[in-house]
Design goal:
- The protein has 406 residues and is mostly helical.
- It contains 13 helices and four strands.
- The protein folds into three domains: 85 residues, no CATH class; 123 residues, Bacterial polysaccharide co-polymerase-like; 152 residues, Up-down Bundle (Growth Hormone, Chain: A), CATH 1.20.1250.
- Strands 2-3-1-4 form a four-stranded antiparallel sheet.
- Helix 8 runs antiparallel to helix 11.
């Protein structure tokens, strides 16, 4: 007989031997499978029912208030160790999973008793096991809560969003009040500077009379004042942002880039050079080479007038921001847009009885087969006298060691 035929006979013998073992222990296997499956059915019926309800809100509005909108976002992101590129949706997710909101839910729904917790710390852990917050790629925010009562699951999900809205409103009103104080202080400073500039211009006109300027010079002054007003506005925004954001914050970097661009435009417009002799001793503002033909009196007039117009524009900008801050400090409108409200679920979320029974059935088959082969192996092993003697010696040695240790 060839070697290949011998191997084939061995394989056939192994298969037949395995079938023989399974047939020999067929009653054990069938009994185990039936018993385990019945136990799984009973357990799945006895397990408490849990219902899950989900509420969905739209992504937060991306509108940017020049002096305050990103304040809360930056503070929450820093507190939660979120990356600097975190979106408002990410921040909302952090707020929804915060201890602040968890404690309010626990108090409102008496979750310490519901979860049979000993203290609030255990109740928070239990709540986190039955609550899920997910921010989708589109920025949607999903709040899912499970409870044994379907109505309670829906109420807890909706209440979570109510508390988020309450937090946003309080934060917005607080930021509005802080911004209001900031703008009021800047307005007072600008009023003082504007009054001084107007007095300086008036004194100049009383001393030298009116100075006539060409159309080109008038256009140059208007353009320069407009650019400088934008720079001053950005400086105000940066001052406010730095109270809660670092230099790496994207809005800070964005404003700095805008400021550099405007400064480059202003420099090109006025044509300032480091060696400009007209810049020494005649005010702080540079002057265009196109105006160098003017006498010193004309240059002084241009600078004084430009300063007055600049401060007037800054004052107008601050006055608008003051009114806006007053509105924000008192506004109490909803901050979230509900896409899907949570409703009581009709079907339970778990236990998944069918899955439990199927897994138990399959596991019992494999376990029973393994048990059958194990029993067959032990039976054959015991029938061998040499193995029996070896096992007896091992047991005796272990018994003596145990008695000696006592």
């Amino acid at each position: 007989m060839s070697e290949s035929e011998n191997k084939q006979d061995q394989r056939d013998f192994s298969v037949l031997g395995a079938l023989e073992v399974l047939v020999r222990h067929r009653r054990l296997i069938v009994a185990n499978v039936i018993i385990v499956t019945l136990i799984a059915v009973i357990v799945s019926l006895l397990l408490p029912k849990w219902y899950r309800s989900t509420a969905v809100i739209l992504p937060p509005e991306s509108s940017f208030d020049p002096l305050m909108t990103m304040g809360a976002v930056a503070r929450v992101a820093a507190t939660a160790n979120l990356p600097w590129f975190a979106t408002k949706s990410d921040v909302y997710g952090v707020v929804l999973t915060s201890r602040f909101l968890a404690e309010k839910l626990i108090e409102r729904y008496d979750l310490i008793n519901v979860y049979e917790a000993d203290n609030i710390e255990e109740a928070i852990k239990a709540l986190n096991r039955h609550r899920w917050i997910r921010v989708t790629d589109e920025g949607l925010i999903e709040v899912s809560v499970e409870a044994r009562d379907p109505q309670m699951a829906a109420d807890m999900a909706n209440t979570s969003l109510e508390y988020l809205d309450e937090f946003n409103r309080n934060t917005r009103m607080t930021d509005g009040k802080k911004t209001l104080l900031f703008v009021e202080e800047r307005i007072r400073e600008t009023e003082i500077d504007l009054e001084a500039a107007e007095n300086a211009l008036q004194d100049f006109q009383e001393e030298f009379g009116a100075v006539e300027l060409t159309v080109q010079t008038e256009a140059l002054i208007t353009a320069a004042v407009e650019i400088e007003t934008q720079i001053r506005a950005i400086d105000l925004q940066l001052t406010n942002l730095r109270s809660f954001a670092t230099e790496s914050f994207p809005e800070v970097q964005n404003f700095r880039a805008q400021k550099r661009n405007l400064e480059a435009q202003l420099q090109e417009l006025i044509g300032k050079t480091e060696q400009d002799p007209l810049d020494s001793g005649i005010g702080d503002s540079p002057i265009s080479p196109a105006l160098r033909r003017l006498p010193d009196v004309g240059i002084r007039y241009v600078r004084l007038r430009r300063q007055v117009e600049l401060l007037s524009n800054v004052y107008s900008f601050l006055a608008q921001e003051l009114e806006r801050s007053k509105i924000l400090a008192k506004r109490d409108t909803p901050t979230i847009q509900l896409l899907d409200s949570a409703s009581p679920p009709v079907k339970r979320h778990r236990p998944r009885r069918t899955l439990i029974v199927i897994v138990a059935f399959i596991a019992s088959i494999f376990g029973s087969v393994f048990l059958a082969f194990g029993l067959d192996f032990m039976s054959r092993w015991r029938e061998d006298e040499e193995n029996h003697r070896r096992l007896t010696r091992i047991i005796g040695t272990l018994r003596n060691d145990w008695r000696g240790s006592r």
